[in-house]
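Allow me, if you will, to draw on your knowledge of protein folds for a short while. The matter concerns a single protein, recorded as an amino acid sequence and a row of backbone structure tokens. Could you please explain, in whatever detail you think fit, how the structure tokens follow from the sequence? I remain grateful for any guidance, and I place the record below:

…
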Amino acid sequence: MSLYGEWKTITLVQATDDDLTPACDLGNSWEYMQLVIPAITASTIGLLVARKSAETYQTLGDSSNVIASSSGGFSTTLQLGGFQFIKIKTSAGQAADRTFYARGYRM
């Protein structure tokens, strides 16, 4: 039986930081994460994670955990490996605010 968390809104505010979202608390430690990616300025997308919200965020995994360069407009599932706190990083600065949606789940 799968267990899903609540959908969280994560907004990259272009005027504040054009390639990194603020931290998002997914509400629990999750094995996987569903991610809805809006239309974006073409770039790769990666995740930064932390065990606690106040810790230093680190890149999740290696290049195999990076979403290939695209212009967004799709959804995907990522292996989160038990982390609760995330940030979304784009390889290119975004031309406008971008709103992502994420929720954790476990099987």
In short: Residues 3-106 form a domain with the Jelly Rolls fold (CATH 2.60.120). The two ends are 6 Å apart (CA to CA). The chain has one domain: 3-106. DSSP finds no helices and six strands in the chain.
